[in-house]
Write a structure and sequence with these properties.
By secondary structure, this protein is α/β, with parallel strands linked by helices. The protein has 15 helices and 15 strands. The strands form six sheets. A five-stranded parallel beta sheet has the order 3-6-9-1-10. A two-stranded parallel sheet has the order 2-11. Strands 4-5 form a two-stranded antiparallel sheet. α1 crosses α3 and α10 packs across α12. The relative contact order is 0.14.
Length: 339
């Protein structure tokens, strides 16, 4: 669809967005049982152009979810299993010698990052050197090898998974890379009914058939539409104050943040809060993002961007607890006198 300009065109584009969102969610549900909030979080990343980090113990369907998303979209898909011996060139590609026109010359051989959906499976098993190979791709949507920059196809998403329990043979993601992820989603266990449905599908010969329902051009159009969703000044200010409230020693920080937080959230966190709130409002059929939208997306947008200090870890605090307490304590009314 062309860039909507009139009220009627905007409404039509919004209706089309909701239809496509529901269609992709329906296709994923054919393979993935439950985890509705996780699916919505992944789709929010898709329609805002952000990368997603999925954390959970093995066997909870993280890889299946990303594979199902890729099958529901007409996009290129690659999977990389991260291991300690994986090298940066194994991801980005490298220069190789080939016979061209009777002469040998260096030719760039693209790596698996040259795709549109990249599944970085167990990303924290690779060394920091290899993890950093994704930084330029995630931020700039390009890869530089041997002094030459190669652009990636749009849209481009990194969907990474990691296991939070293993302590040996893993390399925690550095803060700079964590900040590049739009959302961090914690995948939990399935309930009784969901587990029964999983057994029915996987032990009785039931095969999930997923049909592609969305192409790259429409995804890019939907991303542009999300950015055009309105947000009132006081709602945007609430997102700003929420980010500033994570900064130790800041004017909006509470005693809990000052005592237990080492590093607060970056401006990318504010961008994630606003864009995710706009996407949530559009899915709900509203023309503008609301305060409750900011509150609803605060946890996945902030939990990986708030770093605890030693005392916080020793006291058993978690970033989830910090963010949840912050959402409950931060006044929703814009305090003009405090600005």
């Amino acid at each position: 669809m062309t860039d909507p300009r009139t009220i009627e065109q905007v409404r039509e584009a919004a209706d089309e967005f909701r239809r496509d969102y529901a269609a992709v969610r329906e296709q994923i549900a054919r393979a993935v049982v439950g985890h509705a909030d996780i699916v919505d979080g992944v789709l929010t990343c898709l329609f805002t152009g952000g990368h997603c980090l999925l954390e959970g113990v093995p066997g909870l369907g993280k890889t299946l979810l990303v594979r199902s998303l890729a099958q529901a979209l007409s996009l290129d898909f690659r999977r990389v299993q991260f291991t300690p011996d994986l090298m940066p060139a194994d991801i980005t590609g490298t220069q190789v010698v080939r016979e061209v026109g009777g002469a040998r010359q260096f030719v760039f051989e693209p790596g698996p990052v040259f795709t549109q959906i990249l599944l970085a499976d167990e990303i924290n098993r690779a060394t920091p050197k290899t993890q950093s190979a994704l930084l330029e791709a995630m931020q700039e949507k390009s890869v530089t090898v041997a002094g030459e920059t190669h652009r990636l196809k749009r849209p481009f998403f990194v969907m990474a998974t990691q296991n939070p329990l293993e302590q040996e043979g893993v390399y925690p993601l550095p803060e700079a890379q964590l900040d590049r992820f739009f959302f961090k989603l914690n995948v939990g266990y399935s309930g009784r009914d969901e587990l029964a449905e999983i057994l029915r599908r996987t032990t009785q010969g039931v095969t999930a058939e997923i049909t592609p329902v969305l192409a790259a051009e429409r995804i890019l159009a939907h991303q542009a539409l999300v950015q055009r969703v309105a947000i009132a000044d006081h709602v945007q200010d609430y997102a700003v104050r929420m980010v500033l409230a994570t900064h130790p020693g800041g004017e909006f920080a509470g005693p809990e943040v000052g005592r237990f937080v080492k590093i607060g959230a970056s401006p990318r966190a504010a961008q994630a809060l606003v864009l995710a709130a706009k996407c949530r409002a559009l899915v709900a059929g509203r023309a503008a993002a609301a305060l409750e939208d900011i509150q609803a997306v605060a946890l996945p947008a902030l939990r990986h961007r708030v770093i605890l200090n030693f005392e916080g870890e020793a006291e058993g605090f978690t970033t989830d607890r910090i963010v949840q307490n912050l959402v409950g304590a931060l006044p929703v009314e814009a305090a003009a006198a405090a600005r």
